[in-house]
Amino acid sequence: MSDPFVGRVIPADDAGVLIPRRVFLTRGVGVAGRRLTSFEFALREAGIERCNLVRVSSIFPPHCELLSRDEGVGLIRSGAITFGVLAEIATDEPGRRVAASIGLALPTDPDRYGYLSEHEVFGQTADESGNFAEGLAAGMLASSLGVELAEDTPLEHLRRLEIEGMIYRTMNITAAATGDSAGRWTTVVAAAVFAGY
Questions:
Q1: What is the pLDDT of residues 172-184, one digit of tens each?
Q2: How far apart are CA 28 and CA 53, in angstroms?
Q3: What band does 143 get if pLDDT is binned at 50, 70 and 90?
Q4: Total structural domains in the chain?
């Protein structure tokens, strides 16, 4: 049986630029005696351990489809170079709270780009971290349009943000945990993974 992906050229747009057309959100928590192993376990729980992750920055491309986690994981091929925005934090302190979040600010107009933000933090709950990441993404989007958002803008306002007549929505995905009681490494990851071009 031949692999349909062997020898396949990844298509680029007219300018020869690689632009993702699909993305999915995922998260995971891993606990192990070694830090790297706990990271691996977190990636496994997130479903992205079998790819070679390349961290990228914060733009959600125009015409990019947001897939479910299951759809996205189904598109990953073992060993593939896979681009994504990744938030990761670890602790070996028993009871220490850790959280990793990806925030999104997405336009309702598919011709426009949006923003992704990553946030890694000690001491915040999942909700606090996720809300902060959402605020970061919304703030970056607004400032790119020449609008400054107040840092205390209510989350309900951010979730349906209107700027210059355009409507944007925000969301987040967060992994949170408390440090293992036996002092083993606890790692949390959250990711926006680009899975199609």
A1: 999 999 999 999 9
A2: 15
A3: confident
A4: 1
- Judge whether 188 and 177 are in contact, CB under 8 Å: yes
Q: Which DSSP helix (H) or strand (E) runs through 12?
A: none
What is the phi/psi pair of residue 136, to 5°? -60, -50
Residue 164 confidence (pLDDT): 74
Distances (CA, A) of 32 to 38, 48, 91, 179: 5, 18, 11, 11
Judge whether 13 lies within some domain: no
88-92, 112-116, 164-168: least confidently modelled range: 164-168
Cα–Cα dist 138/135, whole Å: 5
- Per-residue model confidence as pLDDT tens digits over 18-37: 899 999 999 999 999 999 99
Handedness of CA 179, 181, 183, 186 (dihedral sign): negative
**Taking a C-beta distance cutoff of 8 angstroms, is the pair 168, 108 a contact?**
yes
Write out the residue range of the structural domain in which residue 53 sits. Answer: 22-196
Q: Give a yes or no: residue 94 inside a domain.
A: yes
- CATH number, position 115: 3.50.20.10
Residue 155 phi, psi (nearest 5): -60, -40
